[in-house]
Design a protein that fits this description.
By secondary structure, this protein is mostly helical. The protein has 15 helices and 2 strands.
Amino acid sequence: MTAGPHPFAFRDFRFYWTARLSSTIAQMAMVIVIGWQVYDIARRTMDQHEAALQLGLVGVVQFLPLFVLTLVTGWTADRLDRRWIARATISLEIFCAATLAWLSWRGITTLPALFGVAALLGVARAFAMPALSALSPNLVPREILPRAIATSTIAWQAGAIAGPPIGGYLYAVHAHMPYTVAAALFSLSLFCMFMIRPVERTAIGGSRNPWRQMVDGLHYVRENRLVLGAISLDLFAVLLGGATAMLPIFARDILHAGPEGLGHLRAAPAVGATLTALWFAWKPLKHDVGVKMLAAVGVFGAATIIFGFSRFMPLSLACLALLGAADMFSVYVRQSLIQLHTPNEMRGRVGAVSSLFISASNELGEAESGFLAAAIGPVAAVVGGGIGAVLVTLLWAKWFPELRLARSFDPPNLGSTAKVMETTT
């Protein structure tokens, strides 16, 4: 496989990348401020534990739509125009941002309003994730898709780094500012999505029953052991190795680094991930991709273990950066394998299942880390989680030899059904 042209050489991918960057910054800015406002409002009438529970519920109300709507959102991404799904979800996000901007401007923001908007954002995310992941392979030639995935991930990581501080600084100016700016960024994202030209679509084969078509996505993941192994490896490794959920405890009570140190600890994994994505965008991986993905997950677990034992801030930061880099390495290989080994007419439904696994590993991983830390202590929880991630890697290497045997991203002949070129803009 040759490197080929850079994904930015393709007009539609440039608009896609810009849309993803601007929307990610807006999303991250909103999430951090919503969390702050929920806790701040709750503390006016509740004690600390009750207010913390309200804060935890924000993640729950965002995860539930993804859990409930997985089959529907995946089928929609394969049945309808993926560009219009993205446009509709961004429009919903603009409505959410504008609503909170108006409420904050008037000083009448309430907990029900914040939870309602958080739920709507969860619905938008549930539909957007499979549609966007399935859209990107339609914008570049197949041979440069791994490079495009790395380049696209840079947009997400850059947004994840920039969004929270932007939201915090704007909130310090005025409560409505982060939402107002988020609405403007979402509008830019929507404009870019409208600039993407019609893409090739593939008719859904097999049964014409919508429910059967939805379930076919689950069946495909179950039967394709390479895809199943890649998705489930991430689920269990991240579920067990959730060190980032414990960072406030490590910053305050173990490393004694204070809130400033917490900011550095939070940023370290994203920095490692961004550098790795930049590397793969410049020099894409070509050989022994499956073994290298397994090794990366093993490094993720090992870095988590060392971080758990560390009492030296520079070492802790280095471990977190390595942890983020290893996770990005795994994400890059996993997403490339999934996209290239999944037929176009199935990508939305498979992407929805993958999105559910990713969200479950993040949200449930944080809950698991919190419960385990309460039971055995934060250090033991983090070290045990890292050991668990390493063990999962060894088990998956044995249970899914398809991962070990994946030499390159080149897929087998997937076959195709009749392709339908869309004529609407």
